Amino acid sequence: MYKALIIGCGNIGALYDFDTAAIATYAKAFHLDPEIEFDVYDVDPGSSLKVAERYGVRRLTGLNAANCQDYDVVVVSTSTSAHYQYLSLLLERGPQLVICEKPVDIDRARLDQLLRLHAKSETKVMVNFFRRFQPGIIRLKQQIASVLGEDQCTNIIVTYQRGFHNNASHAIDLLEYLWGSTIDLAGARMNHHVQDEFDTDPTLSMSCVWNGANVQFIGLAGVRFSHFEISLYFTQNAVLLKDGGNEIEILRTPTPSGNFYPKLGLQSREVGVLDDYMVNVVDHAKRILRKEEPCDNFPESVSISKRILEFQGH
Questions:
Q1: Which residues contact 282 (CB under 8 A, 6 or more apart)?
Q2: Separation between Cα atoms, residue 302 and residue 114, nearest integer Å
Q3: CA 109, 115, 116, 121 torsion: positive or negative?
Q4: What percent of the chain has a predicted confidence (pLDDT) above 90?
């Protein structure tokens, strides 16, 4: 049995699926997992009370280094501005594992300090770029490796909304996970930016070259709907991640005939890739606790934030 603590009882902590059948929060995923018992804490006592009553769990009224040591895993699902405070505490004297929402922080000096604490700590930190923990995405990584063995990626198009650091970072992490290499933003060109959602995180469009491919990030500034899609184009193949990555299509060209380029044809489609995605996040966390996963993704996640902040001029 694992003991867990959720710090922060807001949307991703407990509320996204409060009145639905989906499993999209830590609270519900923990509640449904027979190997986990959990407590909750929030600086707003009313928020933690609401969640504690729903799931019949204990509500902490205060938080310190001593009581954090009582847990195997602690979730930091607070606002980004509070991450540094809690991560510093947990890395000094923490549990075996911390799961932190992204981005880790928006200040490069604090990110460097957290890296130093992480390097000295026995606590692992799993940053919840949740797509990389889904079985459908893990299969896609293997499929892309197979395609790259016979074809070249020529173009990548990412469309997103609500802040480059907050949301386009998901695409950067996913692309780096799929390819196993880092995107260098030092030579990227910013084409457009609008402060539409966050004062310090514009929704921007930019372009760069990565592994020989033309990469375009298109920020849908000013929209009032959720949108996240990635299109990967190869010489004779295409991979389309639609509906936030919940649907994955793989297309290929048939055997060419004549002098005309053939149209792409659908080879496979997988839907429901992100259904109940938090179950797979928690399963990955348990594999880390069992030492079946050798490392966490904290340094890579901090690197993404630092590159984005430098690109944005922060």
A1: 26, 29, 30, 33, 36
A2: 9
A3: positive
A4: 91
* Residue 96: DSSP 8-state: S
Separation of alpha carbons 235 and 14, rounded Å: 44
- CA 150 to chain CA centroid, nearest Å: 29
Helix extents (H) in 40-107 = 45-55, 65-68, 83-92
pLDDT, the chain, mean: 96
Q: How far apart are the first and last CA of the chain?
A: 43
Model pLDDT, residue 279? 98
Q: Which residues pair with 203 in a beta bridge?
A: 194
pTM, to two decimals: 0.95
The 10 Å Cβ neighbour count of residue 119 is 10
Strands 2-7 and 73-76, bridge-based pairing: parallel
Nearby residues of 169 by Cβ (< 8 Å), 6 or more positions away = 102, 103, 129, 304, 305, 308
CA dist., res. 259 & res. 254, Å (int): 14
pLDDT of 256 higher than 70: no
- Contacts of 283-290 with C-beta under 8 Å, sequence gap 24+, read 283/133, 284/126, 284/133, 285/73, 285/97, 285/99, 285/126, 286/2, 286/35, 288/96, 288/97, 288/124, 288/126, 289/2, 289/72, 289/73, 289/96, 289/97
Query: Is omega for the bond preceding 103 within 30 degrees of 0, making it cis?
Result: yes
**DSSP sequence for 200-268:** TEEEEEEEEEETTEEEEEEE-TT--S---EEEEEESSEEEEEEGGGTEEEEEE-----TTSPPPPEEEE
Distance CA 106, CA 48 (A): 26
